[in-house]
Design brief:
By secondary structure, this protein is mainly alpha-helical. The chain has helices spanning 12-18, 23-38, 58-63, 75-88, 100-113, 116-130, 142-155, 157-182, 187-197, and strands at residues 52-53, 56-57. Strands 1-2 form a two-stranded antiparallel sheet. β1 and β2 form a beta hairpin. The longest helix has 26 residues, at 157-182. The protein is globular. Mean pLDDT is 87; it is low at 1-20.
Length: 210
């Protein structure tokens, strides 16, 4: 989970990379942006994730074979984990060249709260906006991405991107409110979550040519 409130980092690097840049450049900028947002070492007593550094929990780092102290987690290890567990594993990687901005939102939310919820919100958004009947199971696979790409044609890629970011933010905000209502210890994180995670993907990124 994210540390309590702090300044929102600039993400101009991702915007520049998305302007016709390679997928590798977009991925690097996306991961770099999240690491900047997450910050350094944290071991907050109210955070059920325990020790984290660069947004990576100790449990996840150990699962990837890291045995050193969390305070000195290398950037290279964090980048590798973010790419494998938060872009490839949830199924977002093929979406990058189709809609980098929506991919960024899904990736960022997955870093913050796992893949199941943002995956389901994405599928729900596609069904609601595009009239599809995707199974809302949180698994972003070929069918989900194909449905989104087909909807871009009928709805307009830029318009769909802006709409989807709004829907995803709305679901995420509601989930934060629900979490705090269910567990008052999480209230200390609420301001930071809203400041850093809601509206953090600039809608102008929906049109890389702009």
């Amino acid at each position: 989970m994210t540390k309590p409130a702090g300044p929102r980092p600039a993400r101009a690097t991702l915007a520049r990379a998305a302007k016709g840049g390679s997928v590798a450049a977009i991925v690097a900028a996306m991961i770099g942006g999240v690491i900047t947002l997450e910050g350094g070492y944290v071991n907050h007593p109210a955070d059920p994730g325990g020790e984290t550094n660069k947004g990576i929990t100790k449990r996840v780092a150990v699962a990837h074979g890291y045995t050193g102290p969390m305070r000195t987690l290398p950037d290279s290890v964090a980048h590798s984990i973010y790419y494998a567990d938060y872009l490839v594993k949830p199924g977002y990687a093929p979406l990058i060249p189709i809609d980098a901005a929506v991919t960024e939102e899904l990736f960022d939310t997955t870093v913050n709260m796992g893949a199941d919820r943002p995956g389901r919100w994405f599928q729900t958004g596609i069904n609601a906006t595009c009239g599809t009947r995707l199974a809302v199971d949180g698994k972003v696979g070929a069918a989900t991405i194909a449905a989104y790409q087909a909807c871009q044609t009928q709805y307009g890629a830029v318009r769909l991107c802006v709409t989807m970011l709004g829907l995803l933010d709305g679901q995420q905000r509601a989930e934060y409110d629900r979490l705090v209502a269910a567990n008052s210890r999480l209230k200390v994180f609420h301001v930071g979550w809203i400041a850093k995670r809601i509206g953090n993907v600039d809608r102008r990124k929906c049109d890389p040519a702009a």
